[in-house]
User: Fold these one by one.
Assistant:
Number 1:
Amino acid sequence: MNLQKEGLTKADAVRMYQYFERLERKLDALVGGISAPPPDNVPATTPQRGGKHLEIPKQIVPNYHPDNELELMKQVRHMAKYLMKRENRKSPFPKPPTKDELDIFATRRLGGPTLANFRLDLANYSYQSPWNLAAAELFADAYIGQHERDITNRQVIKSLFLRHLHDLGEQYKDLQVLQLPPDDDQRIKLDARNARRLVTTRRASLALRRYNVIEAMRKLRKFSPLLAQLGRDGMSDDEFAPGPYSPPKYNIVQLTWRSKKLTALLRALDALHIYTRFSNGHKPSRGNWPRRREKSALVDHSRAAPKGLPRNCYDKTWLKHLTPIEKKQLNAGRKINLKLPPKLQRQISSGQDS
């Protein structure tokens, strides 16, 4: 496939290939607090327009960080794992300091963390305790020593480490709970929370992928405010479809409030994403592919509709069943054109037919 021959400018094509080449790699850092790779890793490099970085809407990724900060956070996480001799977030932690050790260090500055025995005060969630603050100083010194050519401010490294302590504390407590029987109340709550995290990650993944499609193409940027309004909570969920499917298939759970026109636009963005994964010829760009999602009869009646969307984004039948008060609270806006430009629609059609 040749995007330029299909009506895109060379600049559009270059931007799209750059964005989507690494679209699968950093969502764990983008959504924050989820370090393990989710089933659908679909982050993107920070979109740029006129040499300036674009901010990802908070409705899509609440804890968004620029690419340079993401890389720094990644280095901080890796060094923390190295100092604590851990391989991944499921690895055991060094035995945390006892209450007596913490008290003695806090009052008399005896003992304390060392690089050779890098223990943290995680059991009490005392992230700003004297022990952890001393550990942060040690960490910053060690990082700067290992990255002498890095111009990063020492205080920045210390702050990032203290921020990472929150995630380490969550990991530590989760590991304690995972040792409990499956029917224990704490274990049940943890499993439910982890399931919610995966759902949130998948929604953010889907929203971010679609947002990057429209930001990569000048002709689609008129939809940027709409995607920002929809956010991750405006994305549909899916359920695993049992069967001998390769790759695995997931059934889309329809949202009752969403109109067919809006759904068609979002599906078109998904198809355009797949289309842009191919450069000249038929060689796909690097990275994991999004999961295979297909239409189904599944419906979710419980999800609330985002407020303030253009009126034609809402299903007509769904709107009719709202009370006058509910319609007023919904605050639907003026209708907008939800169709793709004809050339892009033809590109999608030709890609699906090929």
Number 2:
Amino acid sequence: MVAVQEEEQCVPASPFSRLMHTPNFNLNVITIMGLSSTLDVNWIKHSVSESLARHPRFSSLLVYEDEAKYKMSWKPTEVNIDDHVLVPDLDPELEHEKGDSIVDEFITKIAQTPMDLSKPLWELYLLNVKTSNSASTAVLKLHHSIGDGVSLISILLACGRRISDPEALPVLPESKKRPVKPGKKRAFISLFFSLIWRFFLMIHYTLVDTIEFFSTVFTRKDANPIKGDKGIEHSPKRFVHRVLNLDDVKLIKNSMNTTVNDVMFGITNAALSNYIHRRHASANDAPSKTNENGANETSFSLKSMNIRGVAAYNMRPSATVQDAYEVMHNGKDLDLKIWGNMVGFILLPLKLRIHQDPLLYIEDSKAVMNKKKLSYQCIIEYHIVKMLIKILGMMKTALVVNAFLSNVTFAFSSVMGPKDEISFFGYPLTYLAPTVYGFPVSILIHFQSYANKLIVSLALDEKLFPDPHELCDDFQNSLQIIKDAAIRKAAVQGYKM
């Protein structure tokens, strides 16, 4: 039992945390952690009571002050570890393949159980079952109102230590700006017109994206075989993941002079294009033809369909691993400027193609992302939602957000993990696979880096994706094909040099 100080007061929940509890937008996070050895349940409970259970959001109830208006507060409470660290009865002697299936089925089952508001909104399940990637698995289920993705990962990492230095906290990679190539300085007038042009593009892309946001809320709707029907946020989901090689992604990034995010979105484009084409292409598909770039591509009936997704964009600086450690171990006050949920949504269009040149997926992705970097639509959308909450109330605003998300096909997100291998409460971590469910979309795609690995996690509607591992194969194959194309490109460029 973790005690709480009596003088601690209730803290009002943020507007977006409250929004995430409405019936049409009830978001939960599941984080799957593969570990290299069998777990000692008593040790884990002790470790959790000395760390996670001391975090203000993990040791508070979310209580209603006005249920009709969804006014809520975080109320400190005592944490009974036995209510939160749970051990299901599973056979530890299962073969690897059966272990994978058992863990998948278990996660699908717990996702169908709503969080219990009578206790803090998190549960840690310990599965001492061997899988193809781990000797045991820990599954952390919590409500998204506790924090955004980066903050939650920081909390988890603050419970770990680097393998190479057991006394040191994990370190997240720093965002690096691309180096400016040496050369002559541009004349002032050239720089001036360049800034004017950039400002024009910013206004243009912001206006276009804002118009598309409103059209998506009211009229525009995707139409394709993997588009979910109304109410899909309540349908059962399957949760699968695949461990990829981050070095392969970096090779493509360097070859194409782009970013890791661009490569991940390009892989997503290739995987979904191949999956939909293989499963849903009509028998009278047109033959291959040469496009305007001189590359051959297969023309098929699905290419005219609308495939769009949304990506969540964090609107403020996120808590660091050190911040989370200070809060849990040193009693540091929670800084509400960096904890919680403050996100906007970016619309991401996909072009369905079967490219003969796989690098075109990366070029398409880069073109989309470059436009989005100049658009301020997500900031405008965030403030519109805040305004609607004040004017219309929480429930009606939730309907607007649901209408927007229900009209797209998929959700996309990515979070950077530690650059070194780490242990979780002393157990070496083999992989880290977070995902989210509760979005009114049929598929949520999340990329999580960990050391030299990149884990793609998929939350899929089980009716629209009857064999979810098949789509995992498409992600893995797409990365390999694009990597091979990047190597061939580098070899040709090297020969010319």
Number 3:
Amino acid sequence: MPEYTEVLACTYTIQRWLSAVNDQEPLRLNTIWVDATEKELNADHSAADISTADLDHPDSDAESDAHLGVDIGWDSQCLRGGSTGAHQPVYPPPPWADRPDSEYNVVEMLHTLVLHGVHATLCTVVLDLGKLFLQIQLHTHVTVQPYTREQWDSEISQVTSAKRGFRIGMALDFGEYILAFVTLDNIFTPHWGQSLADLPIQHADVYHEYHAFLSAVATWIDTHRLSKNTKQLGLAVNAVHGANCVFGGIGVYTIIEVFYLAGLSVFLTEYELFSCPSRIARFCEAFWMFAHHTHQCLRQAQRRCYSYWLHVYGKKATNMSLRMVQLRQEY
């Protein structure tokens, strides 16, 4: 599951980039690039589709060029998704992208999409492209990176993903600039919709929609406890991870930090957490505090300082309140 802080950091990166280039020409979408797999290249693309790196090095073998960026089109079968989730098309699917009469119509259709803005949900980044919205669900090892045309043509597209050390999961080409979602393993999920309501991942943001978040948590607890297939003796941290439809943005280190802020043990069972109003209230309040700290600090400091903001994760030692020390000694 993507971490709340990581999603927000990606969103702020795009917002800062948009602010810097907003006074120039409109960011009109020209095409979409991916680092295709060998199977996708063999099935859907000819040699002419491969990026300029392949054209500049015609003597290079197929294996070394297997993961160079590919300019995909309306007929692409390129799908991306999580390791266990349903895969979704990278290119806008029908009915918006019906089979055109000519390639000229495809270009004209894509050029109607202009980047207007971006916002974050608990575990996705949503791009406003005018006629369509693109929701990127970030999984592990995914981040966003804007490039200039010169950087893209002279550096990124000139080497394979193996030499780069990362893959282009999906890159939106706006002409002078390219907005790329880079990943280690091509695991991310794109969702297209003609309105925000059409997007499938709709979380109540713990920071901006706290009352809606609390309502979703209460509904989930009632449903979860009444389920006959639910074992209440499992660890609460695992239950929170599994309920990403409610607790979106709580990943492997956020859960530890939130439990720490709430003064809760990570070894609590589901029953011990969700059956105790005081504990679940402290958990929700701690998640809000974590989100509040994230919003404040990401705007004021560099992302490289983020590890120093964490209290527990990756730390050999941490501080405790006097109350927590007493509880630790007692239990």
Number 4:
Amino acid sequence: MFARRFTNIIVRRYASTAADLYKGLINGDRSCLARSITLVESTHVEKQHKAKELLSQVLQGLKQRQEKQGNVPISFRIGLSGSPGAGKSTFINVFGRFLISQGHKVAVLTVDPSSSTTGGSILGDKTRMLELSCERNAYIRTSPSSGTLGGVTRTTNDAIALCEAAGYNIILIETVGVGQSEFAVVDMVDMFCVLLPPGSGDELQGMKKGIMELVDLIIITKADGELMQEVRRLKTEWSSALRLMRRRSSNWSPKVLSVSARTNEGIDKAWSQMFAFENAMKDSGEFMSKRSQQLRKWMWNNVKDRMLDQFLANDEIQAAIHSYEERVVRGLITPFAAADAILSLFSKVKPHQN
């Protein structure tokens, strides 16, 4: 028996093929899930080929599971955004444990900003989710943004699919949290929530274009102690602001509520609102329709990423870029004309790459 267990450990640790990783995923092996996400995040050419093979198996398996369940989705994806210091990680630590107590398996995908100078990331979000990270039915993964805008990474969609294949039915995506441009996550999740701390701005702040027009639920954090008066004021003002905005869905009106991760006050109400949103979307048919639109968006994001990768990997293009940069700086050619010339060259040399 010991020999068999030891063999299983060795197989899980050194599984190298896409088939091995997929087998580990569907068996709920967290080490295989971690290695699978690392694989899809890799920029190594050979590993990218293996990642594509793995994702093909994963998506096929998810499709078969979804067909068996009909209109009942196999997971509920929730995006959580907010400015730095809003308490996103602290909220997830408490909220995730609450979900597990309700019988759910929770995967948390967080994105850490990468340095524009060195490219490095601290990846410290997990340190604020220590209790959740110890839960058997929880998985937490922190990934660097690597310069990707929109609050997520290039491979967040891939990681979501891998988590679903591993059996996690609640996927929480915590974005970088840097401002109003952080809405790329909306094209990856079923519900988009924004967390706001007390003192985060007045009603006019809520009228800004961009991220706030896409919100499904506003969660005011740190609702305890001396901050309660400010929380009540903020809740009233945001409720008023949302009434003046055009609804993103005819089947749901954005709500505002307050929570305290310190006292657990409001955590159950937050889930009740999320559950109500999920049911409203499912009953109207909008849930699966949105998923279909997101698949199209995922495809086009991959098209853009692959084109950029091929563009930057071409030696002839790189030489042309250097030449045109010099000419632009010296004022010999406009940036628009230089861009047109480089793209024209790319369209000519690309077929020879294949």
